[in-house]
Design a protein that fits this description.
Blueprint lengths: L19 H8 L10 H9 L10 E2 L10 H15 L3 E5 L7 H10 L8 H4 L1 H5 L10 E8 L17 E2 L8 H20 L3 E5 L7 H7 L4 E2 L5 E2 L7 E8 L18 H5 L17 H7 L15 E3 L3 H4 L26 H4 L4 H7 L9 H16 L5 H5 L7 H14 L2 H11 L6 H12 L7
Parallel strand pairs: 4-9
Antiparallel strand pairs: 1-5, 2-3, 3-8, 5-8, 6-7
Helix pairs in contact: 3-7, 14-16, 16-18
Length: 448
């Protein structure tokens, strides 16, 4: 049964959406910008430069009467809205339920693939206070990056590449972290005491369970956060603090009997609801995985060349999603549906120039070309044979191996065998040589 979600209630009392502060101030006749005025301007001038030294940041002495914890929270929420965040909530660091137990099971099953740091940092990740025992609260913030089109549309255009929505604009880490630092410094200035640390997907912190505890949403069956107001399109950031701020009520699960996200996965990466096997996930395979993509999964990937949005886009709660308002996160036109033939021509310098300020740049040209050539192999387009053949002599063995597989999918069997007779014997890399052998031995798809 497909879930038919109700319209979020403005009086839900969750305290997780920053727009609630506007309603609160309107009800009580207050300005929607409670920090406007000379006092706040002075605080901004004093904090115009980041404090030097190792984190955590510490508060400057406050010369006026201290604010109550509730007032601190309200003013921080208002500032978060000004910074462009769309969801706000506060949680106790330990309020993550059985998330730690589930993570231990996931690691024990070795479903993390190449992401060895998940096992190495397990104990710190399970116990949020292990990184910073003095932390009393975690301020969780969400930034909407809702797309202006259905990202699945490009999947039907097999000669074009599909890039995940989050990677079509600038790297969200570089956008969100400065905003978090400004908010953290403002919190210290307002409180006149305390310490803070900020996190954007770069530390062993369970952001999604903490966001659920803070009332921002819940972890859906696809294991990602779902918001009643934003659907599946939220970036998360966190500010840990020693300040004892009021916590928000956790958000309950609203997935019901729906399994749209599970059924949408092209590689069957969900062994059960609320469980993911990263080793089968297209996002993992195209971004985190360093070696050749497993042969049995390559045909299932279609033209997805960086990440995958299928499970996110399938969520019915997206009916309430809105277009993201941070311009730097908006899709660049050249990243909406790039031509695979054009991408296949990129050398290292051209790759870096093609994706400035982009998260795509971090995977490097080799892994990216591996993805592009896999998509070329799935395209069924004979016009792309030349693009694949050009990489049989590529200096990167990962790229050469992907080119072999692509050609085995595009060329008639006899022509591929003739090419292998010339090229395979000269291949010095064992993995690439194995690609030639496997392609010749495999039951090839119908060729014309």
């Amino acid at each position: 049964m497909r879930l038919s979600p109700p319209q979020p209630s403005p009086a839900s009392g969750r305290g997780s959406e920053v727009t609630r502060v506007q309603r609160c101030h309107a009800q009580h006749g207050k300005s929607p910008l409670p920090l406007a005025g000379k006092g706040w301007e002075g605080a901004k001038r004093r904090l115009s430069s980041p404090r030097r030294g190792s984190p955590p940041m510490s508060a400057p002495a406050r010369k006026t009467a201290p604010l109550s914890p509730s007032d601190l929270k309200d003013q921080l929420r208002a500032l978060a809205l000004e910074e462009g965040f769309d969801a706000f909530g506060i949680a106790d660091p330990d309020a993550v339920g059985d998330a730690g137990t589930r993570l231990r099971h996931w690691v024990a099953e070795e479903r993390y693939g190449d992401m060895g740091w998940m096992a190495e940092t397990l104990d710190r990740r399970v116990h949020a206070r292990a990184m910073w025992p003095e932390a009393l609260r975690v301020v969780m913030l969400g930034m909407n990056y809702g797309p202006d089109e259905d990202p699945r549309t490009v999947l039907a255009e097999r000669s074009l590449g599909a890039i995940s929505v989050y990677a079509r604009g600038e790297d969200y880490h570089d956008i969100i972290k400065p905003k978090l630092k400004r908010l953290a410094r403002a919190l210290l200035a307002l409180a006149g005491t305390g310490d803070v640390k900020v996190f954007v997907d770069t530390a062993p912190l369970m952001e999604k369970p903490l966001a659920m505890a803070a009332g921002l949403g819940w972890q859906g069956k696809h294991t990602n956060l779902v918001s009643r107001a934003r659907g599946s399109w939220l970036f998360l950031g966190a500010i840990a603090t020693t300040l004892d701020l009021p916590v928000d009520a956790p958000m309950g699960d609203h997935c019901g009997q729906c399994r749209a996200c599970l059924d949408a996965c092209p590689t069957a990466a969900f062994p059960a609801p609320y469980q993911i096997d990263a080793r089968r996930c297209v996002s993992y395979l195209t971004i985190e995985h360093k070696g050749p993509i497993p042969r049995d999964l390559r045909p299932l990937m279609g033209n997805r060349i960086y990440g995958c949005d299928d499970c996110l886009a399938a969520c019915p709660w997206n009916k309430f999603a809105e277009l993201g308002r941070e311009a730097k996160l908006a899709a660049r036109d050249e990243n909406r549906a790039p031509d695979l033939a054009d991408l296949a021509t990129l050398d290292d310098a051209a790759f870096r120039a093609r994706f400035p300020k982009s998260p795509i740049k971090r995977v490097g040209r080799g892994r990216f070309l591996r993805n592009v050539l896999t998509a070329i192999g799935n395209s069924g387009d004979p016009a792309l044979v030349a693009s694949a053949r050009a990489h049989l002599g590529d200096p990167d063995a990962l790229v050469r191996g992907a080119a072999v597989w692509a050609l085995s999918r595009l060329l008639p069997a006899a022509e591929f065998a003739t090419l292998a007779a010339v090229q395979a014997g000269a291949e010095a890399d064992a993995e690439v040589a194995a690609e030639w052998t496997a392609a010749l031995e495999a039951d090839a798809p119908p060729r014309t």
